[in-house]
Each structure stands twice: as structure tokens, then as C-alpha cells.
Amino acid sequence: MWRNILKYGVIAGLVVAAGMWATLLAFGGNMPHGMSGMALGYLGMLVGLSAVFFGIRRHRDVDRGGTVGFWPAFGLGLGISLVAAIFYVLAWELAQATVVGDFAGQYAASAIAQAKAEGADAAALAELGMQMESFKQLYANPLFRLPMTFVEIFPVGGLVSLVSAVVLRRAESARL
After folding, report:
1. For residue 7, how many C-alpha atoms fall within 13 Å in the half-sphere facing its CB?
2. pLDDT above 60 (res 70)
3. Residue 102: its pLDDT value, please?
4. Beta-bridge partner residues of 144
5. Coil, strand or helix: which one is 120?
6. Nearest CA to 164 among 53, 1, 13?
7. Which region, left, alpha or beta, applies to residue 69 given φ > 0 means left and ψ of -120 to 50 means alpha?
8. By C-alpha distance, which of 83, 88, 67 is closest to 4?
9. How many C-beta atoms surround the C-beta of residue 138 within 10 A?
10. What is the DSSP string of 29-90?
11. With the CA atoms of 28, 32, 38 and 40 taken in that order, what torsion angle do they form, in degrees rounded to the nearest 10?
12. pLDDT tens digits, residue range 110-164?
């Protein structure tokens, strides 16, 4: 089981990291903000985390003789997701250090520009500006940034693990 966790976790992590890098390169080193950026990011995560399904299926069909319970399948999926999430965090840190630069500053500027475009008044813009300055300070701290990046992907992996475990579970008595 540990071998499958590492194998499929590395595959998922590399696919997710490659998707992140492809997006960065396509947008000139800037991550797209707003709904389109989120949709693109989570689509890449789902594509990479499809390795969870294949890892559970292989474990069931090859290692377990065609049977696997919900909890072992779910645990395997979470393990694969954990490895993929570590790759995702490392890829983001590398991207920030080499290509992205000041993500927090870009995000803050984008949020303020969007608020202006939506007609926010001066008081709301001032409040948002203060919130964005606070965010930039927090984001500069790796003890804030690393867990924040981790929780972008791991819950998605948990959901993929849950669905995969439900779909792929097969009890001994169900075998024909």
C-alpha cells in the first residue's frame, strides 16, 4: 500500500505541478485571479488527483485480489492526496521564488481594482486596502503561506478520495 501511495501521489503531484507551471507560463508569470483563475486551478487539481482513483483501483484489483473496503480505499486515497499536496506546495514555493514574485501584491492590486470596477466607495476601498496590506504581511510568513497553500488542494484530494472509495469499494462477498 505504501508503494501505491508514493507512486500515485508522485504522479498526481507532478501532474498538478505541471498544470500550475503551464498556467503560469501561459499567463506570463501571473496567476489569473477571480473565478476563471479558480476554475482553471481546480480543474488542474482534479486532473492530477484522478491518480487517486487509479491508485485505489490498482490496489483493489492487483494487490487485494479484486476486493477493498471503503476505509482502506479512503485511507489510500488520502495518502495519495497528501503526497500530491506536498508536491503542490513545493511547486508553488518554487514558482514564487522564480517566476511569480509578489503574488500577494498582485492579488491585492487585483482585488482593489475589482472593487473599484464594481463601484466601491472611498471608505470601502480604504478598508479593503488595509485588509490587503494585512494579507500581504501574513502571506510573507511561510508559517502562514505553506498551510494556506496546502489547504487549497488537500480538501479536493479528500473529496476525490471519498468519491473514489465509494465507487471502487468491493466486498469479498460481492465477487462473482
Report:
1. 10
2. yes
3. 85
4. none
5. coil
6. 53
7. beta
8. 83
9. 13
10. T-PPPHHHHHHHHHHHHHHHHHHHHHHHHHIIIIISTT-B-HHHHHHHHHHHHHHHHHHHHH
11. -40
12. 889 989 999 989 999 999 999 999 999 999 999 999 999 999 999 999 999 999 9
Check residue 107 and give its pLDDT.
86
Q: How many CB atoms lie within 10 A of CB 76?
A: 28
Residue type, 163: V
Tell me, what DSSP letter sits at residue 28?
A: T
Residue 18 identity (one-letter amino acid): A
Cell digits of residue 145: 503561506
The DSSP result for 133-144, as a single string, is HHHHHHHTSHHH
Asked whether 131 and 138 are in contact (CB, 8 A), the reply is no
Q: Which three cell numbers stand for residue 157?
A: 484530494
Q: Which cell numbers hold the place of 166?
A: 465509494
Q: Read off the pLDDT of each residue in 76-84 and give the average, rounded to a whole number.
A: 98
Task: Give me the pLDDT at residue 34, please.
Answer: 66
Per the structure block, which three cell numbers stand in for 64?
487485494
Q: How far is residue 73's CA from residue 116's CA, in Å, rounded to a whole number?
A: 48
The more confidently predicted of residues 121 and 37 is 121
71: Cα separation from own chain's centroid:
23
